[in-house]
Each structure stands twice: as structure tokens, then as C-alpha cells.
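Take a careful look at the protein record below. Let me know whether the C-alpha cells fit the sequence:
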Amino acid sequence: MRAAVYVRVSTEDQARHGYSLAEQEEACRRRAAELGAAEVLVYRDEGVSGASLDRPGLAGLREAARAGRVDVLVCRDPDRLSRRLAHQLLLTEEFEKAGVRLEFLDFAWQESPEGRLFYSIRGAIAEYEREKIRDRMARGKLQKARQGGIPVGFYAYGYRYDPETGRVEVLEDEAVWVRRMFEWFVSEDVGVLGVANRLTDAGAPTRKGKPFWRRQTVRQILANPVYKGEWRYRDLTVPVPAIVDAALWERAQDKLKEARRLWAGKGRKQYLLSGILTCADCGNPMVGTYTKWWGRKERRYTCRQARGVARNLGCRPAKSVPAGPVERAVWEQVKAALSDPDALAREAAARSPQAEELRREMGRVEKLLADAEKGREAVLDALAAGLAELDARTKARLAELKRRKERLEARKRELEALVRGAEGAAARLDELRALAAEVLGRLDELSFEEKRALVRAVVAQVTVGGRGVRGAAGLRTLSVTVALRVPKPGSAGIATRQE
């Protein structure tokens, strides 16, 4: 006879009942030996709640039972399998269908209607007690907050929290930097990123020991009301020691709101290659910047990244290349790639997926749709049979199955349209050729948005090497390499232009 032993303990169980994995395993092994087991498999879950079925040890046990490797299951108590009655019944039925007999050390299991009734009643009482404990804990936390205590963990920068006493104290080594953040931000012409860079330059300690400050971290500190002495818990405000006065905190909020308003309505310069331009020297993406260059403002691309934003800071000294020449070089390559309407039409037809391949993909999607529907029906059947509860986990599972079904149905509709399109591709070759000729005839008249969309359709990546130093002969030492999605006939899809 082959026996399986399942042991589980959570921190709460160990403290309240004195359970331990070693004690459970030893006792269960003894019972398995008394039953005459020649082989014992042990499955463990340590520090895992019994309210969930998603446990590694339990998953291994269920797999072994389904595979027929277990004849009897020895467990200290039904609570070890699960704290939820519905889960207990589900597991019991699953093990019985697999031919596995259940043996509990602290519970007399009887395979009879009376035994099953008692099993269900006992599980219902245990679940009721657990819900009462959870409710009492929630009400206790709320009451503690009403009395000015901290009912949960408190981890704000600038403070020290003692979980034993629930007291919050100002940690002066960090609080001094919090005050400086607010003073710099409110009193000087510096933004959130500027504050983050100052903190990094000054060597201000971070909570995680990192050598730099991130912009988002600074923004969260500036916007947190805890620093004016108000810690929020649900709908309650718990007083804590303030690090800055309320007036300074409010001025910081006004500046944050104003910065958001100005940024939302700010007119922005247009950059044709944003998102597809990379520096060949440092590997960073290059972004558009409108900055002064030799005394006048102009559009440029730079690979420089702020310390509060990225780890790779880019080329040093900072690299900045003019936007106009780079964009013109790329646009010329796009025009050259599209210069032959017949080649463009042939390329588009050659790249369109074949109808047979699309039908195979549709078959795979239909199978996934059927599987999703089976999964949904299985959950609904378990609910109808009382083997599962409509709790948050079950609702989330049903919602995910519904979303998956909707995505698959949308994909099926797309494939159906593509099949129809692929079947008529040959008949539309003349139409494609005419459309290409029409577009090519007015490329330079396209709007910026149309040009940008066309560049992204044709160009996969652009890399820029060198710095674009301006000399007597004009711009030099700047190379622009364009990787095309639709290569010119006979090319590998890579075009390089030297400026």
C-alpha cells in the first residue's frame, strides 16, 4: 500500500495550536506505518494559508492522486487540507474518485451519510469561526485607528515605526532630507526631477540603499499628507508627528497642481522619429528636446537620461544631434523604399498571410474558445453543486474566463476578415498598385501625423552614430542607419546615410 502524508502550517496555527511540520509529519508517518504502508510520500506547505487551494504541496498531492500513485492519504485534521468547507468537500470528492482513502489523526472519518454530515457541519463551524476572527481583527484595526493608533505597517520615509508598541517617531537622519525636498521645491525654481538630482548629488540616503533618487519617489513624498501630520487609514485620519508645517505642504500641492496643468496644456514640438531612434554609441533611446544650441533654440535628439529616470545615463559628455538633418535622412530613405509602386504592391501581396495558414490559426483559436467555455462551465457547475463559493477568487476566475473568451472571439473575427482578404488579394493587386502610386505622388504633402504613421509602418529602427559636429563643410561625423520593414528590391532592408 502506498500512503501520502500531507502537512501544512501557517504562522497563526503554530502560535495558537503548537503545530509544526515536523510534529505533524512524524505523527502521520506513524499512522501510515500502522496501516501497513510500504511507501510514504510526504507533501508539505509551510507558512501557507488554508483558505486557498493554490499551494505547491497540495498541488503535488492532487497530481499524485490523479496519477494513481496514492492509496491512502494521512492528515492530522480536515483543517490541514483546507479551512473552507467548500474546498474540503471538493478535495474529498476528488480523492475518493481517484480511489484514495482518507485518514485523519484528530477526526473520526466515517464513510456514511452521518459521517459526511458531521464532516460538513464541522467544516462549516470552522469556517464560521475563521470569518468571525477575520471580522474581529478588521474591527479591532478600525478601533485602533479611531483611538489614534497605527493598525497596519507604517513605512513612510523620514519615520521610524515600532510594530510592538504601534508608535511612530520622526527619524531625523531622513527627516532632514524631507524638509529640504519641500523647501527646494516650494522656494526655488526647481521641479521634481531637479529635487531628485539634488538629493543624488548630496548623497541623501534612500530607504532601499540605492545610490540615486527617482523622480517618482520624490513626487510621492511631496504629495503625501503624512508629512504634515496626517496619516490616512480608510476614511480616518490618524495624527502622527509632522515633519513639515501644513502651510509648506499646501504650497507644495499648489505647485504640483500647477505643474500638471502647465504640462497638460503645453504646446509641444513635433519629433518625427520619437520611439524608433537609438544612439549607436551608448544604446540608449534618443528623445526629442527643444534646447538652446549656440545661442538659439532648436529641435534636437539626445540620448542623455536623468539620474532620477534611468540607470544608463547615456553618452558622456552629453550627446545632442540636430533633429532636422536626421529626420530628412530617414524621410529620404522612406521615399526611396516606396519609389516603385509595382514593387510595393508585389511586396505587400507577398507579405500578406496565406488563407490556409489563417484557417489553421482560426482552428487553434476555436479550440482555445472551447477550452475557455469548458472552464467557465466547470466553475458554474461547482457553484451549483455547492462545491465552491462565489467568493472574490471565484468571481475573479469567472471574470478572467469571460475576458479571455471575448479576446478570443475578437481574434476569431479578425482572422475571418483576414481570410476573406487573403482570398481576394490577387484580385486586388491592381487596386494596391493604384493606391501606392497615389500615395507616392503626394508624400511631401502629407501632414506630420500622416508622415509619422508612414515612417512607423516602413521603418523598424533608426540608429545614430557620432555627434554631428558642425565644421566649415557643414554637418559631419554623423551617421544615420535605417532598418526598413519593407526593404527595397534586392536589399537586406538596411540603409546607411553618412552626413
Summary: The chain has 16 helices and 15 strands. The first strand starts at residue 2 and ends at 9. The chain has four domains: 2-131, 159-264, 268-351+440-499, 353-424. Residues 471-475, 487-499 have pLDDT under 50 and may be disordered.
